[in-house]
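Q: what does this look like with inosine 5'-triphosphate bound?
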Amino acid sequence: MARRFPGGKLVLATHNPGKAREIGALLAPFGVEVVAAGALGLPEPEETGSTFAENAALKARLAAAASALPALADDSGLAVPALGGDPGIHSARWGGPDKDFGRAMAEVERRLGVTADRRAYFVCALALAWPDGHVEAFEGTVDGTLVVPPRGALGFGYDPIFLPAGSTLTFGEMPPEAKHAISHRAAAFRRLVAACFA
Ligand code: ITT
């Protein structure tokens, strides 16, 4: 049995405004009092794990210990099979110090070159941690293909080059509700809710 969220305050252990916006919207129906990691002055931890799940747990544990509150962290990224799974857990780093995802998307395209295999998927690992170190973990993915040039200014990160399977719109062209119906983050979130909130 998963440990249940006890209600009340939940620290959102992310410094990424795009993620914070999406997780805030996904949490809205559950009457959770969301506290931003930035507002508590929590530092951005070094992501030393070798998987999405390890990094999510690391970020959630640190935030829960520092705040003495339950904390939810998200580690996510774009995996491209033709690039051996890159940028993968390094997705944020490909944006460089300026978090320039125009540059990161151009780098994906440059490395793919004339490769015919344009498949890609997003992964989202969520970790809910308690101050005593307990962690509940969930993962979601969404399959798609990469398009050039990037399309749309909605969403964040790599959304403008990601065309989810079965859609004619990239994540960058989709309003938030449409992305939430199919995204990796929403899939992981449904599992979290079923185990810890329902
Ligand atoms: P925190 O660790 O503070 O949460 P971060 O941006 O460093 O923020 P990650 O290490 O998990 O987070 O990196 C995830 C990157 O993957 C993120 O910066 C985006 O570029 C990309 N990414 C994740 N989810 C995405 C989504 O739904 N749409 C587009 N890009 C996404």
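The domain at 9-197 is CATH 3.90.950.10 (Maf protein). DSSP finds five helices and six strands in the chain.
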